[in-house]
Amino acid sequence: MKVDTKVFGSLSDKEEAHLFTFQNSNGITIKVTNYGGTVISILVPDRDGNVDDVVLGFDNIDGYLGKHPYIGSLIGRYANRISNGKFILNEKEYSLYQNDGKNHLHGGLKGYDKILWNYNEYADINRAGIMLSYLSFDMEEGYPGNLKVDVNISLGENNELTFEYVASTDADTYLNLTHHGYFNLNGAKDLIYDHELLINASHYIETDKHLIPNGKLIKLNGGPLDFNIEKPIGADISKLANGYDHCFVLNKRDVHPEFAARVRHMGSGRMMEVYTTEPAIQFYSSNFLKGIKGKGNIKYRKHLALCLEAQHYPDSPNHPHFPSTLLKQGEVYKQTTIYKFLTE
Ligand code: BGC
After folding, report:
1. Which of 197, 254, 193 minimizes the C-alpha distance to 220?
2. Pairwise CA distance, residues 163 & 127, whole Å
3. C-alpha span between 60 and 216 (Å, rounded)
4. DSSP tally for the chain: helices H, then strands E
5. Which residues lie closer than 8 Å to 23 by C-beta, 6 or more apart?
6. What is the pLDDT along the chain (344 residues), one digit of tens a residue?
């Protein structure tokens, strides 16, 4: 495989974002920029060989520099919400930027989605990708510790788009990284109601109306949130106030990525499977998407796309019984999440 590299656009006189294209021999093409580690497009053939772009995004850098809900980007230092933008670590209280009402969301004012990452592109016979790296400084957005983050984003001949994250810090900190792709397996021609979803989860995390956990894990036992048996996203969505925006606790995790979710679009025959080492996955049905013009002048609207964000539980620093998101000085954080594209 190989990588095609070109300039994507300027952020300032001194800073240029690049665009990297990887293509495999099965007709899958992925474009990624080092601005925000953002996946801009994923072209996937349908069962008849017709290609569509299965993620939302923008045609040029300007779209990404404006305000948009994290379309296709990396998220850090902490994906999802931290209540009141506060946590206590080693007996000291830290205050984060409150960008979601009183709460902190997706890393704050300038999260990893707005960083121009250093990059190194690479390719071999079976895989092409970019290794992104960023040194997040001590007290950036209020978080302690100089944190070195590497994210390897690659496409394989096996049709897997893989995110491998590695991080280390010089002082204890909290960390929760994810990728925020907005998928529509039918090329955003219609809402996602006809996409069939399966989530390999035993529980979901109960939250208040601001999407902050109350500490309780609720067993999935039928009902609108239960996707243990595959069902169309549109089947029960109207039973929820605004749509899906829930964190699901995944069954058995390991050091190796395990099956987390599957989305199928019967009309096109496209299917996507998600595998991860993370303990949870946020299923977000783009409930707040509106007023944005995306690629090819398509108007982005509510329920046009779905996000499956592998991560730790929201607000873990304030819930000691949740799996820990603490990264101690000297430890290494690792995560692998895979989005695999198939056609049936
Ligand atoms: C969150 C949503 C939020 C969206 C875009 C998702 O990860 O769960 O509540 O609106 O990101 O910011």
Report:
1. 197
2. 13
3. 42
4. 1, 29
5. 1, 29, 30, 128, 155
6. 999 999 999 998 899 999 999 999 999 999 999 999 999 999 999 999 999 999 999 999 999 998 999 999 999 999 999 999 999 999 999 999 999 999 999 999 999 999 999 999 999 999 999 999 999 999 999 999 999 999 999 999 999 999 999 999 999 999 999 999 999 999 999 999 999 999 999 999 999 999 999 999 999 999 999 999 999 999 999 999 999 999 999 998 778 999 999 999 999 999 999 999 999 999 999 999 999 999 999 999 999 999 999 999 999 999 999 999 999 999 999 999 999 999 99
Token output for 109 = 């004012």
DSSP 62: H
- At 116 the three-state DSSP class reads strand
Q: Are strands 92-95 and 104-105 parallel, antiparallel or unpaired?
A: unpaired
Q: Which atom of ligand 1 is nearest to the CA of 79?
A: 7
- C-alpha–C-alpha distance, residues 296 and 114, integer Å: 23
Residues acting as catalytic residues: 180, 309
Q: Output the CA 284–ligand 1 centroid distance in Å.
A: 7
Give the pLDDT confidence score for residue 254 in this predicted structure. 77
- Please tell me the distance between residue 182's alpha carbon and the centre of ligand 1 in angstroms: 11
Residue type, 51: V
Separation CA 337–CA 278 (nearest Å) = 8
Q: Which amino acid is at 287?
A: N
Helix (H) or strand (E) holding 79: none
Q: Residue 169: in which H helix or E strand, if any?
A: strand 160-169
Let me know how long the chain is.
Answer: 344
The two structure tokens encoding residue 96: 């984060």
Contact, 281 vs 260, CB < 8 A? Answer: yes
Q: Is 78 in the pocket of ligand 1 (CB under 6 A)?
A: no
Question: For ligand 1, is residue 70 a contact (CB within 6 Å)?
Answer: yes
Q: Is the CB of 341 under 6 A from ligand 1?
A: no
Report whether 287 contacts 312 (CB < 8 A): no
